[in-house]
Write a structure and sequence with these properties.
The complex is a heterodimer of chains A (about 110) and B (about 110). Chain A has about 110 residues and is mostly beta strands. Helix content of chain A is about 0%, strand content about 50%. Chain A contains no helices and 11 strands. Chain A is globular. In chain B, strands 1-9-8-3-4 form a 5-stranded mixed beta sheet, with no helix packed on it. A 4-stranded antiparallel beta sheet of chain B has the order 2-7-6-5, with no helix packed on it. Classes of the chains: A mainly beta (about 110), B mainly beta (about 110).
């Protein structure tokens, strides 16, 4: 049971480069989310999705795009990386359930933009 | 979703109970209280949740006051591996899965 898998685990980008952080879950969860965590801070919500084809913005969406073409995958795209996007990124998924099920998190992608 | 207030840090002796408080004075009737923890920059891990009644599982107990304006997470016999940042979150039952994290409480379990 893989749970939530994020790739890559580490990445260094140059300012202005683009990349996609991958997130996949094998639990058939409807809900998926992306968070970023800066040093010494709590997690902040970037984007979330309630199902395939449906996404919405979280607390800090600027500079990031998402799409949800399948239930399993929820990639996060940085179109033009900036040093302010240096952070640890976490993906999470949750079943639809009755509204009170736990969320599962991936192990994170550590991104440095130089 | 209601905001929560937690102390920034706490210490606990190994083997003792760790009691982590959380204030959520603006909680509404259909909002659950959730606790997650994050060990050393790993992905957050679910601990427990509750609505009105006290809850217990293999990891912890959750005590919610009768007016639901505050709660306490109890780790009955803290170990060094329980050193982590603990987050208290309140969330609507109909919420779309998003969790809004605060700063959490850094619990340091000491030998």
């Amino acid at each position: 049971n893989a749970g939530v898998t994020q790739t890559p685990k580490f990445q260094v980008l140059k300012t202005g480069q683009s990349m996609t952080l991958q997130c996949a879950q094998d639990m058939n969860h409807e809900y998926m989310s992306w968070y970023r965590q800066d040093p010494g801070m709590g997690l902040r919500l970037i984007h979330y999705s309630v199902g395939a084809g449906i996404t919405d913005q979280g607390e800090v969406p600027n500079g990031y795009n998402v799409s949800r073409s399948t239930t399993e995958d929820f990639p996060l795209r940085l179109l033009s990386a900036a040093p302010s996007q240096t952070s640890v990124y976490f993906c999470a998924s949750r079943g639809q359930g009755w509204g009170n099920t736990e969320a599962f998190f991936g192990q994170g992608t550590r991104l440095t933009v130089v | 979703d209601a905001k929560t207030t937690q102390p920034p840090s706490m210490d606990c002796a190994e083997g003792r109970a760790a009691n982590l408080p959380c204030n959520h004075s603006t909680i509404s009737g259909n909002e659950y209280v959730y606790w997650y923890r994050q060990i050393h920059s790993q992905g957050p891990q679910y601990i427990i949740h509750g609505l009105k009644n006290n809850e217990t599982n293999e990891m912890a107990s959750l005590i919610i006051t009768e007016d639901r304006k505050s709660s306490t997470l109890i780790l009955p016999h803290a170990t060094l591996r329980d050193t982590a940042v603990y987050y208290c979150i309140v969330r609507l039952t109909s919420n779309t899965g998003k969790l809004i994290f605060g700063q959490g409480t850094t619990l340091q379990v000491k030998p």
